[in-house]
Amino acid sequence: MKILPLILKNLLRKKTRSALTIGSIVLPLLVICILGTLLRALDADPSGGKGMYRLIVRHKVSITNWLPGAYDPKIRNLPGVVETLRMNWFGGSYVDQSAKNQFARFSTSDADRLLKVFDEATVVEGSEAEWVNDRSGLLVGRQLMKRYGWKLGQKVAFKGDIYPITLELTIRAVFSAADESGVYFHHQAVEEALPRVKGYVGWYWLKTDSLAATERVPKQIDALFENSSYPTRSETEKEFQSMWVSMLGNVKLLVGSITTIIAVVILLIAANTMAMAARERVTEIAVLRVLGFTKEKILGLVLGESFALSLFGGALGLGLFVFLLPGFREGLVNSPMAAFAAGIRLFPEVLALGFGVTVAVGLLAGLVPAVRSAQRPITDGLRQVA
């Protein structure tokens, strides 16, 4: 007698229990895959590799400390530096301080250089020239335009908190990029409203001509300003992004801990189901032994049922994850966490993680019940008949 038909027959014998067990695997596995995707997205490079040629120069003490704008020509003249961009975080609020109205607001002293440094971005509505030539002009991400229903030429007001001013800006251009959740405007507009900040910038963004320059230039810049009143810390774009992520706490440890707990819970549920099934079938297994089933076949039968349940749950969980991922990304794009959406995609390693959890649960959950069933004396099962 073949084992596979028996496995399927036994799974269908208790349909409700099998369905609940599969469901208990599907939903936690979906959560594991989503958490894994978020974690992987934090390390992803949404620029398509162009971020490897970008550097950030900030104050050595803290990114909240300003740097002189006069550093610009000294940095630009270093060998290997193709372009520089002076940037500031404006912060503030749009409409109100609620979470739904939070998005990135940057000002730059070099509007004409922005799309040269971030050359993966392109203007899809309006024109770069209109934005560059209008000091009260605004460059807006395409997704943000869609989120608020803004139109070209519309005026948008931002109330500052770091800068105690309110700016009324006009949308002159719309850009497309991996991250379309922010806005950019001229820092000159901030300086005109608040003269005391003139001549200072939050940080510099650089573009280099080679990976060798990306490795060499940070040391040269930091050495250049080491003994000045405004020492610098230069780092790659990836290191800079990691710094922001670290402000959220040890995200990797948190996600790893949650994933482990979920996997253990799945294992316990599946193991309990298989143990119950094995206990209910002591007599049946004894009869199979009498009919000639070896211990190895009994082991394979019980372990196969556990593995089949886990595979069904895993297949449904991974399928549901793949189906829901685009909607999940779209939901992030239209939320205050839009910046995280840029790195969201289907990562093969996340699918491998989900499959690995599925296989591990199937084998480990069924191992103990399978061994016990195979080793139990035939007389113990037949005694229950009498």
What does it look like?
- A hairpin with a 6-residue loop joins strand 7 and strand 8.
- The protein has 386 residues and is of the alpha+beta class.
- The model has no long low-confidence stretch (mean pLDDT 85).
- The longest helix is centred in the C-terminal third of the chain and has 39 residues.
- Helices cover 54% and strands 17% of the residues.
- Strands 1, 3, 4, 5, 6, 7, 8, 9, 11 and 12 form a 10-stranded mixed sheet that branches.
- It folds into 2 domains: 178 residues, no CATH class; 170 residues, no CATH class.
Number of domains: 2
Intertermini distance: 26 Å
Strand content: 15-25%
Oligomer: single chain
Based on the model shown, name its key terms:
10-stranded mixed β-sheet; two-stranded antiparallel ribbon; alpha+beta
Secondary structure elements and pairings:
Layout (H helix, E strand, L loop, with lengths): L2 H11 L1 H29 L10 E6 L7 E2 L2 H6 L4 E9 L14 E5 L5 H4 L4 E5 L1 H6 L3 E5 H7 L6 E5 L6 E11 L5 E5 H7 L6 E2 L1 E6 L2 H14 L7 E5 H10 L4 H30 L1 H9 L4 H39 L4 H4 L6 H28 L2 H6 L3
Parallel strand pairs: 4-9, 6-8
Antiparallel strand pairs: 1-11, 1-12, 2-10, 3-4, 3-11, 5-8, 6-9, 7-8
Helix pairs in contact: 1-12, 2-10, 2-12, 2-14, 10-12, 10-14, 12-14
